[in-house]
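Running this now, will post back.
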Amino acid sequence: MNGAPPTGAVAWAVAAIVGARVGWGVGAGPPRDPGVGVALAVVAVTTVLVAVGRRWWSPRVAAVTLVLVAATGLGAAHRALLSDGPLDRLAADGGTAAMVGVVATDARPTEPGRWWTIVRVDRVGDTRTRERAVWSSGGDPPRRGQTLDLQASARPLDDAAGFDGYLRRLGVVARLSVSGVAVSAPEGAVIRSTNVVRERVRAAAVRGLDGDRAGLAVGLVTGDTTLLSDATEERMRDAGLTHLVAVSGSNVAVVIGGVALACGLAGVGRRGRTIAVVVALLWFALLTRAEPSVLRASVMAGAVLVAQWRGVRGSSVHALAVAVLVLVLVDPALAGSLGLLLSAGATAGVLVLAPLVARRLSRVPGPLRTVLAVTLG
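Update: finished.
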């Protein structure tokens, strides 16, 4: 962190999260989440302060208010696009229709021989849409990115909590029961390259290691934990070690370092290195399936790279705030993602709180002081 924290950018990021969360709740209809009510109260209070408290009015307040309003509108519009469409109405009626969908996630195993995945439905009959549905089945799963012709019935999600609540936070509106499926188009070249790498990493790990060791290796590299047994995942949760297989900022740092080193050895200039690192970060985000923590680290690193490219000495806190702001405005659903909020919160703890803690621990030896400060932060 260089100098004082850029409070303007931080305020924009917080306003974007609050606004997008409010808009997401409003776009879904009557708020069912108590957090939506709290956020609505915050928006109301902020609006009143801006309207009647003219002595607090300033360009900074105007900018924060603009971000808040824009994020609220984007959140509501995004949520409305993901619901109250032909698929949602078909599920309410319990009907069957021909659909065209794209596999949006890798298949996740539920029990031996069965899996589930999320499908982005682009067409129901002759009507275009952009809604999401969960599809559970057996046999060979589809590959991420494939376009499918489906004959399926739809029904609404059951519960507001549990797995259905998790699916709702991902924008899923219905369950599909598929009676017929055909692949109408393969995945694109970029997604195919990530699919191939993930499959080869899994195959290499299985060849060289046994059981959970293979699962840990694959999780460390790509974040794929499907090879881990339920017992091992439970033990990792109990020990607080699940972050080891959650691809995040440390993985992004390794990628940046590796690409920058390779470019340096090849004699590539600064601009070329920056372009190569940005391209590598985009591809790595797709490889690791765009986990919120990876997105946060990648966009944050991109902001730092852009600042360096322009010859500006940037602030890490500023880069974090810009990353959160950009991600939430591009995908308002991330405002409700614990992955993004915890990743951003932990990073803010390291960047903002750790230096304050370190000053309080002035009598502790240097290396130990740093470790303690970062851990507490």
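The radius of gyration is 23 Å. More later if anyone needs it.
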